[in-house]
Amino acid sequence: MSACQDRELGRLLHPFELGHLNAEETDRFETHLLTCEHCFELAQKFDPVMAIIRTDEEIKALVAQSAAPESDSSSLLSRIGKALWPEGSLWLKPAIAYFVVALLLIPAYQGLKQRQSEAVLAPQMLILSGTRAVSSSISPDSPLVIMFRINKAQPGDSFHLKVMADDARVVFEDESFVNFDQRQMATLLFESGLLSAGDYQIKVFKRGESEPLVEYLFNVE
Amino acid sequence: MDQLAKKAITGDKLAERELFDKLLVRFRYLAKRRVGDNDSEDLAQEACATVFEKYQSQTFTVNFEAWAHGVLKMKIGNYLQSKKRSADRSGEYHEEFGHQGTERGDPDLKRFLADCMKELLATSKNYARILNLTYQGYETAEICKSVNISRNNYYVSLSRGRSLLKACLEQKGLTV
């Protein structure tokens, strides 16, 4: 079967099969079918298929369903959008917008209120001197940063550190304390509530020794 | 076909036989499209007989096939008019271009075609829209306007749809 020699007429094949052509086009194409082996064979073989397409109710229903407008099968998102933003009168849309904004602001307002009632307490700082006990208005409710000096401490050294209450109770102990800087200043952090009111003693030992290297006294009121 | 007709007119019997064999097959197809299964064979044979009687004495204004097609068209037109007249008397005539009656079709073909149509319609929305408008009786120009496509795109959509449908049916083992 040689190819169709008249491309213009050849492309009318399927419109012809569907009955789309007007009277003049139909005449031209039917005459073309009398001479064109290619188009006639295609049309003849496809005729049983076209007969069903033209008349079968099931096929027609399938086509009608597929050709339905896009809006019928719109996405979930767009349907939610339509539900939230209905086609209402003009005054309704700003009213809905204000309402939605107000709803969004409520949690933010409540959060700010809560933060105000739960004020964060700043840590207190206590710098100890080796010569005398330090007593200041340290509150047990706030975190406490204590700084003190360990003479001759070298980077890489490790010390045994104890914080003892006045009843000889050990409230904090670190057997390998290394938290000091190049200027030999050590830093200890106590969370709020760890130390109650009373006198405390910090003892720093060289590892393996029973006599403290340095001792500091401080007081929490 | 025009060449065959010229040979047949000069007395070439082989050419004449080939000409009328081809013509009858095509007339059958065209008549069936216009009037359905029932009377298409009679119409095709009548038209062929008329062509056979007259073609040697005929002076073709354009060419043989245009004249032969005119003969068939006239036979079909007369048939439809007579059918309309008789139906008008009984009040039952409904004019419908081309396809009279309901094709029962091969059940396998129908089943496979339904499957293939589902695939095709899912991939080609334009084809679905064009076909839907066809069922509603629109013509090409109206369909192009409604689907908002150019006439060229309309031909492309239809041609692509037909090819996909044909390929799908052939995949299922049918020869179309």
Order of helices and strands of chain A: HHHHHHHEEEEEEEE
Structural class of chain B: mainly alpha
| Alpha carbon gyration radius of chain A | 46 Å
User: Largest protein interface?
Assistant: A-B, 38 and 52 residues
Radius of gyration of chain B: 20 Å
Question: Which shape of chain A, going by the Cα principal axes?
Answer: elongated
Main beta-sheet strand count, sense and barrel state of chain A: 5 strands, mixed
Number of helices of chain A: 7
Helix content of chain B: over 70%
Helix/strand order of chain B: HHHHHHHH
> Tally the helices of chain B: what do you get?
8
- Based on the structure, what is the oligomeric state of the protein chains? heterodimer
Number of strands of chain B: 0
- The neighbouring-strand order within the major sheet of chain A is 2-8-7-4-5
Percentage beta strand of chain B: under 5%
Distance between the termini of chain A: 109 Å
